[in-house]
Amino acid sequence: MSDAAIKKVCVIGAGTMGAGIAAQVANAGVPVLLLDIVRDEANRNAVAEDAVKRLLKTDPAPFMSKAAAKLVETGNIDDHLGKVAECDWIIEAIVERLDLKQSLYAKIEQHRRDGTAVSSNTSTIPLAQLTEGRSEGFKRDFLITHFFNPPRYMRLLEIVAGPESDAALVDKVAGFADRSLGKSVVRTKDTPGFIANRLGVFWIQAAINAAFDLGVTIEEADAIGGKPMGVPKTGIFGLVDLIGIDLMPHLQKSLTGTLAKDDPYQAIARTQQLIEKMIADGYTGRKGKGGFYRLNREAGKRKE
Ligand code: NAI
């Protein structure tokens, strides 16, 4: 099937991932509808509009070209969800909460055209849970497309299809991701965390525990767990700052809730208190005022 079959894409959730995915689609010359919630009554589209402004300013290189930005239409889900009917692929990239994702799908179901692909960018939630309660038609058109952060530079795309997913539609999305977005597509089973996060979250969690148990600094931990172990540039704590500290409790809860009680991950998922305090204090990572690295710098200054 030709990529021309995907003429317009909708991305819902203009945060770290949704904005980055929208930029990649627009950079490929395909029009995008980017929607988010209403946070400011005076400017109901502000969340998506601000995301586009940020995409044009990223350093060292803008995530999106000025020409591509003209292909992005911004809006909010309350006023503009009906426009999903114009789109051939709807990508959900809202926060990692099953209840919010499920209630959004119920709304999308009322507006989308039959045969339109709907996918979730979930990191960990099994497809079977996401589509619970939805119609047969919705389940047929639904899949998981898990992009990695930042979507501009990370080539991997995990695709998860359910038993009811339409194989031709899944192939159409995979083909578009491969040819138009330059992704290396890996098809994975519908298991908690799929492949990358089943390993990745385990490994991040184990590294955080080890650093705190052994009393090593985050720089020391990243020096060992960074380049020498094949993690480019950021190291593990730098990666968590990039992913977003606020995502961690959702990833942890999703995995502890879906994995078997005797799974080794259950025993190591034990940094909730520290992470929840960081979030409450605004240390959400690069998307906020900073994360582990900023906290560490501030602690260092207090000791001086
Ligand atoms: P984020 O917190 O940066 O952005 C989420 C966006 O969704 C926010 O702008 C928020 O206002 C919006 N939103 C929340 N509820 C909404 C609703 N009902 N309708 C429309 N918009 C809504 O989150 P992030 O990090 O971009 O994560 C999004 C998804 O991508 C999650 O499922 C996450 O697990 C997944 N993911 C995240 C990665 C990361 O490195 N941050 C990597 C790969 C996947």
UniProtKB/TrEMBL annotation:
Every 3-hydroxyacyl-CoA dehydrogenase C-terminal domain range: 193-294
Q: Does the keyword Oxidoreductase apply?
A: yes
Q: Which residues form the 3-hydroxyacyl-CoA dehydrogenase NAD binding domain?
A: 8-191
- What organism does this protein naturally occur in? Sphingomonas naphthae
Which residues of the parent protein does this chain contain? 1 to 304 of 774
Asked whether the UniProt record includes Electron transport among its keywords, one would answer: no
The protein here is known as 3-hydroxyacyl-CoA dehydrogenase NAD-binding domain-containing protein
Q: Provide the coiled-coil residue spans.
A: none
| Record key words, sorted | Fatty acid metabolism, Lipid degradation, Lipid metabolism, NAD, Oxidoreductase
